[in-house]
Design brief:
The protein is an alpha+beta fold and 139 residues long. The protein has two helices and four strands. The protein has a four-stranded antiparallel beta sheet with strand order 1-4-3-2. The protein is elongated, with a radius of gyration of 17 Å. The relative contact order is 0.23.
């Protein structure tokens, strides 16, 4: 029987929203970290940390802003007696990220909506597999 991952909780670890004087270009960095899954902790909860950093440069130079959002999800596994550790880590990394991304999208959207002197940000729906593959290539 295959492992089943359960989403337990969600926590905001960091929100940073600030204007910066100079900025060379817009960019977006995306970092995903998981707690190690090992045989001796297989039945415990496991953390997934997602940190998104966005630098947003307005075309008319009316603002340059930096936004950082870090969230943590807690997940556990069921039916894990015969599960492969690597398979469970992939499940946590890929499916956990897919589960947490709507929270990040909403948080970022709401945060930027409160400042009517800047453009509202709505992240598009993200293909988590390709995003994580791209981040692996950059490492």
């Amino acid at each position: 029987m295959q492992s089943v991952m359960r989403f337990e909780s969600f926590r905001i670890l960091e929100i940073e929203y600030k204007f910066v004087e100079e900025m060379e270009k817009d960019n977006l960095t995306f970092e995903v970290k998981t707690s190690n899954i090992e045989i001796d902790n297989i039945n415990e909860s496991h953390d997934l940390l997602i940190k998104l950093e966005m630098k947003d440069k307005n075309k008319d130079k009316s603002y340059n802003r930096k936004i950082v959002v870090a969230v943590q999800g807690k997940f556990s596994f069921e039916n894990n007696e015969n599960s492969d550790i690597k398979e469970m880590e992939n499940l946590l990394r890929i499916n956990g990220t897919a589960i947490l991304m709507p929270y990040i999208r909403t948080l970022l959207s709401n945060l930027t909506a409160f400042d009517n002197s800047t453009d509202h940000i709505l992240l598009p729906t993200i293909n988590v597999n390709s995003l994580l593959e791209d981040s692996k290539k950059e490492d």
